[in-house]
């Protein structure tokens, strides 16, 4: 029932891949078993049974993130995420979390560029309660001026804590601000203080009506449940959430192609300076994305990977150095960072990082190196599906970002078939100087400790 | 990928609903649905056995994902660092996977990465660990690798240098991280110079002082199989796991590990320390105190009490600070129940202009928990969380292993694991009140704030906090008693051979100073306050009391009429009442021995009993020893008075303490602004001027300078003795150590 034709094909592909990858021959990751339902109001529901422990995980993915924010309202998707805990018709403010906790459950939420996710893991027999709670806030969020203002202060503290008050807290904000001109990936998910301050209760109402509608949501349930009973409950609680009055807007500005290298020098009072080298790359799900993911492994996974070995171990240029593709729903950035050891220069680090990208273009990776990357990727795949939350993440990501739940398992085969020529080809496609962003982040308080 | 059959079925189900949805009926007003029938939860099976060499091996089998995790834990970490070598445990752990006797660092990285595995090593104060995760087909290789890095680390000099560089650069980053600093300073306040109080990565100085031999010795002493626990978790059979453990560790012989010798953490004292970082936009706050170690019988109740204060399921701090006032993103409290000791720490961060308010609310919550009984309902919520979350804590095989390992390492009975839920639910509000009252000392909380001090100080003053110590971030020194970096060496005022007035003679004319009292008065409060600060600056009472022996080498120069006469000496002290001084003067060896009242002298001429006057002088000098003096005074066995403030000969202001007791004539201590003792003055009987005449007393003054930190205690490396204002000798310490073993035989009558 839950095994689609597509998954069956994947399994065959796996067997083939095993021949090509002798080191991994003995190990076959198990497939995820699931059902996908769509309710009449457009809500998608993924059910995946796992009876090993009497617990369940429920994640509600709204397909909205900081890339859906309009100018002057950066940070709003995340601020709104906080507002979802401020009560709904049948739920008092701030009780969602405490109710879940009072039965031993854990819950939280997070916002990325592309999605906003509300999740809870709890003893399985409380599943009716979670579904009821999530449906209540999807349909009838309370929007209160005082609560909004207070929560905005909380989010401003979150920004201060995560971004402003710790060394390197602004790193990604700087990188994306420099790399993008037009696409909203330019701004950080946390937003700016000014925009947070400018947000209003009217924005909250509008955002809820626009994006927090069943057709923009995917509910994933993984764990110890009876699928028939659970399907009935899903219909009962989520089925009554009204259908959206209008389609969810998807008018996100496109980033124009970069035509020449961008360079920037930024001052921050960080203890050690940093250098960033980045290249614009493609989107998640594009055929080039798979070799790019493999490239991340080759450059940066483990002490034997190229960037740490060269910059940290051999050259002792960097306290830490890494590089990987930030591959998201819309085209994003592949970037590498080196935090310099005292006494080393940004120019040295820049040269060393660029050399690693150039080398990928110049010569194909060795078969050993490619096999290593695949083994690492397979390990992530396997150990990344240990918990019910892990499994829900893979399923929901496939359904929401790829709009194809089959990729939750289907990508295994694609990754195992990436070749050295693929990696060299995508390197030549993307790692070019016209497509490059170089940022030196200097220490304006040099010498201070 | 849609499944048509299912989607179709759903449409059928949804038909009636979709009809209703079009009219958008009002959302029902209703109560939360009841739960379904609960399934029984039992702690999953695991196996624990001990190899013949004493290594404990835990296995948890799980066959869903084809992976195996290995976790090896050594019962040693930073708390076992040798004195003055903070960071040895950390360096040992970071070097484990950086080369063995048969594999280079790069070969290890290549091997683990090639099989797609993960290998990491690390340590905290109590434990060192090596973790590996591999696919099941690489299990054998991974066990070989884990055994190799644990058993045969090479500690290659170039790798030591690399790791030292990594650690010192990380220290540089940490030194600018308010979150890190707040926790590090808090630990110092709570644990003093107990290893839990010291930064695990040491300081640039301690890291620099560590040698390859230190690392090898640490490894040799503590890395023995009977001091380890190995957990093998995942897709494997019991037989395979046992065979592999036996294969790679079975031939490793047992060894003896040294007993832990260290100081206990100090009693809680109220102290407010502010690390000033003027560019901060937020203040990091820590509030808490010493509490109980993990294996204390009250731990579960205490942990539940603190869950009410700031943990999952209840969390008053979160409610008050975040939900009600929007002061912070997060506020919480934790019981840090560690192996040797434990603490309670509440933490939050808030913007500069709400620092005072947030701090007040946090302290209020400590008081509320300590003073008022927890309402039944609130306690039940916290209990329900802990009891209800039990199945969440056994989800993955690694979760299961973690619980078993934690019990084994903390020496808790394994039978406790399955009864956890019952034990939590049996706790009553009375229990909570009892532990809260027993362990929370609201008048002795340690408080740390890292942020823009100038901006929030007025808020603290408004709360009545007037005694905060403000330390600029650049001057913070986590190894210093005062938490402040030393700024250059202190130079004593008088100079040998110079005829200027002795340093502290001025104090002689101080009224009362020379006047005998009929009955010893009780120590006054100002005096005790000052004494406490002096003791703290010296290193703290606990640390001072922890000093059992001293071995010191000096160069001592006697000021003779013919000119300076240098000598080298080695002094052994075994507290409370034994010492020995071996000196070489002009090539001649002399020895003085004092052993609980008896005293001998040895010179090239022979061995003799010390004359009675000299023996009495030795006895007095033992009682006058600064460490003894401070301990006895702090613990009320001596009378402490504060005399009028004064100045030294070079015009530095000093405060003056006078200490006396039944067998101790008055001794005055001169204390500078850093609370360091810069002088000690007392009278000793002089020789009779002519036979039959009464001896005239001599005013002796010792002038101390060049304080340096030794194992957390401040030691003056320079001292001068003046008698009646005339320089008599000067001694310079060349080497000093505490608590090294000193043979008893040294205090016998020399032969």
What does this structure look like?
The complex is a heterodimer of chains A (449) and B (751). In chain A, 43% of the residues lie in helices and 17% in strands. Chain A has helices at residues 5-20, 76-83, 95-101, 127-140, 145-164, 171-179, 193-198, 201-211, 227-238, 289-300, 306-314, 346-362, 367-383, 388-400, 407-416, 420-430; strands at residues 35-38, 44-49, 55-62, 106-111, 116-123, 217-223, 262-268, 274-280, 318-326, 333-340, 436-443. In chain A, strand 4 and strand 5 (116-123) form a beta hairpin. Residues 1-26 of chain A have low confidence and may be disordered. In chain B, the strands form three sheets. A 13-stranded antiparallel sheet of chain B has the order 18-17-16-15-14-13-25-24-23-22-21-20-19, with helices on one face. Chain B has a six-stranded mixed sheet with strand order 1-2-6-3-5-4, sandwiched between helices. Chain B has 21 helices and 25 strands. The relative contact order of chain B is 0.09. At the A-B interface, strand 1, helix 3, strand 5, helix 4 and helix 5 of A face helix 1, helix 3, strand 5, helix 5 and helix 11 of B.
List the helices and strands and how they pair.
The complex is a heterodimer of chains A (449) and B (751).
Chain A: H1 5-20, E1 35-38, E2 44-49, E3 55-62, H2 76-83, H3 95-101, E4 106-111, E5 116-123, H4 127-140, H5 145-164, H6 171-179, H7 193-198, H8 201-211, E6 217-223, H9 227-238, E7 262-268, E8 274-280, H10 289-300, H11 306-314, E9 318-326, E10 333-340, H12 346-362, H13 367-383, H14 388-400, H15 407-416, H16 420-430, E11 436-443
Parallel strand pairs in A: 2-6, 7-11
Antiparallel strand pairs in A: 1-2, 3-5, 3-6, 4-5, 8-10, 8-11, 9-10
Helix pairs in contact in A: 1-15, 2-5, 4-9, 10-13, 10-16, 11-12, 12-16
Chain B: H1 4-23, E1 47-50, E2 56-61, E3 67-74, H2 88-95, H3 105-114, E4 118-123, E5 128-135, H4 139-151, H5 157-174, H6 178-191, H7 204-209, H8 212-222, E6 228-234, H9 238-249, E7 271-276, E8 282-290, H10 299-310, H11 316-323, E9 331-337, E10 342-351, H12 355-371, H13 376-388, H14 397-409, H15 420-425, H16 429-439, E11 446-451, H17 453-462, E12 469-472, H18 525-538, H19 541-545, E13 549-560, E14 563-574, E15 578-585, E16 588-595, E17 598-603, E18 606-609, H20 612-624, H21 626-634, E19 639-647, E20 653-661, E21 664-671, E22 677-685, E23 697-710, E24 713-723, E25 726-738
Parallel strand pairs in B: 2-6, 7-11, 7-12
Antiparallel strand pairs in B: 1-2, 3-5, 3-6, 4-5, 8-10, 8-11, 9-10, 13-14, 13-25, 14-15, 15-16, 16-17, 17-18, 19-20, 20-21, 21-22, 22-23, 23-24, 24-25
């Amino acid at each position: 029932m839950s095994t689609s034709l597509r998954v069956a094909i994947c399994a065959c592909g796996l067997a083939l891949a095993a021949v090509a990858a002798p080191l991994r021959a003995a190990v076959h990751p198990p497939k995820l078993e699931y059902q996908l339902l769509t309710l009449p109001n457009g809500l998608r529901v993924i059910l995946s049974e796992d009876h090993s422990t009497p617990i369940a995980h429920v994640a509600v993915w709204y397909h909205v993130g900081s890339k859906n924010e309009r100018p002057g309202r950066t940070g709003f998707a995340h601020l709104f995420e906080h507002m979802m805990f401020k009560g709904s018709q049948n739920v008092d403010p701030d009780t969602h979390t405490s109710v879940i906790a009072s039965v031993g459950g854990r819950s939280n939420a997070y916002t990325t560029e592309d999605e906003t996710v509300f999740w809870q893991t709890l003893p399985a027999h409380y599943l009716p309660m979670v579904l009821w709670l999530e449906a209540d806030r999807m349909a009838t969020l309370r929007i209160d001026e005082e609560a909004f203002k207070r929560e905005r202060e909380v989010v401003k503290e979150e920004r201060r804590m995560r971004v402003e008050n710790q060394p390197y807290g602004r790193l990604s904000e700087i990188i994306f601000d420099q790399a993008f001109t037009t696409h909203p990936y330019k701004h950080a998910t946390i937003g700016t203080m000014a925009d947070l301050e400018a947000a209003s209760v009217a924005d909250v109402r509008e955002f809820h009506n626009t994006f927090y509608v069943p057709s923009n949501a995917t509910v994933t349930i993984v764990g110890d449940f009876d699928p028939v009973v659970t399907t009935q409950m899903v219909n009962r609680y989520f089925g009554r959430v009204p259908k959206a009055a209008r389609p969810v807007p998807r008018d996100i500005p496109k980033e124009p192609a970069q035509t020449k290298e961008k360079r920037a020098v930024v001052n921050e009072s960080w203890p050690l300076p940093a250098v960033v080298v980045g290249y614009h790359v493609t989107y998640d799900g594009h055929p080039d994305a798979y070799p790019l993911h493999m490239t991340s492994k080759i450059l940066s996974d483990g002490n034997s990977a190229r960037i740490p070995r060269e910059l940290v171990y051999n050259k002792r240029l960097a306290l830490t150095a890494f590089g990987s593709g930030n591959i998201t729903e819309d085209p994003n950035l592949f970037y590498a960072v080196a935090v310099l050891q005292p006494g080393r220069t940004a120019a040295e680090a820049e040269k060393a990082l660029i050399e690693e990208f150039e080398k990928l273009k110049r010569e194909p990776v060795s078969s050993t190196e490619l096999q290593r990357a695949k083994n690492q990727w397979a390990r992530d795949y396997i150990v990344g599906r240990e918990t019910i939350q892990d499994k829900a993440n893979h399923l929901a990501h496939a359904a929401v970002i790829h709009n194809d739940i089959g990729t939750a398992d289907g990508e295994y085969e694609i990754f195992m078939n990436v070749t050295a020529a693929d990696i060299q080809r995508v390197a030549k496609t993307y790692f070019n100087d016209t497509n490059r962003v170089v940022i030196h982040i200097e220490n304006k308080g040099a010498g201070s400790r | 990928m849609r499944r048509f059959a299912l989607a179709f079925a759903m449409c059928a189900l949804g038909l009636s609903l979709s009809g209703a949805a079009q009219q958008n009926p009002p959302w029902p007003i209703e109560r939360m649905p009841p739960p379904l029938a609960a399934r029984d939860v039992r702690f999953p099976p695991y196996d624990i056995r001990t190899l013949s060499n004493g290594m404990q091996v835990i296995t948890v089998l799980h066959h869903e994902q084809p992976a195996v995790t290995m976790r090896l834990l050594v019962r040693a970490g930073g708390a076992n660092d040798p004195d003055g070598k903070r960071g040895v445990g950390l360096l040992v752990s970071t070097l484990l996977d950086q080369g063995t006797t048969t594999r280079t660092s790069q070969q290890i990285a290549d091997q683990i990465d090639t099989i797609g595995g993960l290998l990491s090593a690390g340590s905290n104060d109590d434990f060192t660990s090596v973790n590996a995760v591999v696919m099941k087909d690489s299990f054998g290789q991974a066990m070989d690798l884990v055994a190799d890095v644990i058993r045969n680390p090479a500690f290659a000099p170039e790798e030591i240098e690399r790791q030292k560089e990594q650690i010192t650069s990380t220290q540089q980053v940490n030194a600018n991280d308010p979150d890190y600093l707040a926790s590090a300073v808090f630990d110092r306040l709570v644990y003093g110079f107990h290893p839990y109080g010291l930064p695990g990565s040491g300081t640039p100085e301690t890291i620099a002082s560590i040698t390859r031999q230190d690392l090898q010795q640490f490894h040799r002493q503590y890395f023995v199989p009977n001091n380890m626990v190995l957990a093998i978790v995942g897709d494997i059979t019991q037989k395979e796991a046992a065979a592999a453990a036996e294969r790679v560790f079975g031939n490793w012989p047992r060894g003896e590990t040294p007993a832990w010798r260290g100081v206990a953490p100090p009693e809680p004292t109220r102290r407010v320390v502010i690390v000033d970082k003027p560019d901060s936009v937020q203040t990091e706050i820590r509030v808490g105190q010493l509490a109980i170690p993990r294996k204390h019988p009250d731990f579960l109740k205490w942990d539940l009490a603190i869950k009410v204060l700031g943990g999952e399921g209840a969390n008053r701090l979160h409610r008050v600070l975040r939900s009600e006032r929007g002061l912070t993103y997060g506020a919480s409290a934790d019981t840090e129940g560690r192996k040797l000791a434990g603490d309670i720490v509440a933490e939050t961060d808030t913007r500069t202009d709400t620092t005072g308010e947030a701090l007040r609310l946090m302290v209020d919550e400590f008081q509320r928990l300590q003073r008022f009984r927890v309402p039944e309902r609130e306690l039940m919520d916290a209990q329900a969380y802990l009891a209800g979350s039990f199945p969440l804590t056994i989800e993955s095989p690694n979760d299961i292993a973690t619980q078993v390992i934690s019990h084994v390492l903390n020496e808790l009975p394994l039978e406790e694991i399955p009864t956890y839920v019952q034990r939590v639910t049996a706790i009553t509000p009375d229990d909570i009140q009892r532990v809260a009252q027993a362990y929370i000392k609201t008048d002795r909380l340690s408080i740390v704030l890292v942020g823009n001090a100038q901006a929030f100080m007025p808020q603290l003053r408004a709360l009545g906090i007037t005694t905060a110590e403000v330390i600029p971030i650049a001057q913070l020194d986590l190894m210093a008693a005062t938490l402040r970096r030393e700024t250059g060496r202190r130079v004593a005022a008088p100079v040998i051979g110079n005829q200027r007035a002795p340093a502290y003679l001025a104090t002689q004319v101080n009224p009362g100073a020379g006047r005998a009292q009929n009955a010893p008065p009780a120590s006054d409060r100002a005096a005790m306050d000052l004494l406490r600060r002096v003791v703290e600056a010296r290193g703290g009472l606990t640390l001072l009391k922890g000093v059992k022996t001293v071995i010191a080498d000096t160069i001592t120069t006697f000021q003779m009429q013919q000119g300076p006469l240098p000598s080298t000496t080695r002094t052994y002290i075994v507290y409370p009442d034994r010492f020995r001084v071996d000196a070489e003067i002009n090539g001649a060896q002399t020895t003085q021995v004092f052993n609980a009242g008896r005293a001998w002298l040895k010179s090239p001429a022979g061995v003799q009993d010390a004359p009675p006057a000299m023996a009495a002088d030795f006895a007095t000098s033992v009682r006058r020893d600064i460490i003894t003096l401070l301990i006895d005074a702090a613990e009320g066995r001596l009378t402490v008075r504060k005399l009028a403030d004064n100045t030294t000969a070079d015009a530095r202001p000093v405060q003056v303490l006078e200490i006396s007791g039944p067998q101790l004539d008055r001794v005055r201590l001169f204390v500078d602004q850093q609370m360091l003792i810069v002088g000690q003055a007392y009278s000793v009987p002089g020789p009779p001027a002519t036979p039959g005449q009464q001896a005239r007393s001599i005013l002796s003054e010792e002038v101390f300078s060049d304080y340096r930190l030794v194992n957390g205690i401040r030691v003056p490396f320079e001292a001068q003795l003046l008698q009646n204002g005339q320089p008599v000798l000067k001694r310079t310490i060349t080497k000093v150590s505490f608590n090294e073993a000193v043979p008893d035989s040294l205090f016998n009558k020399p032969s």
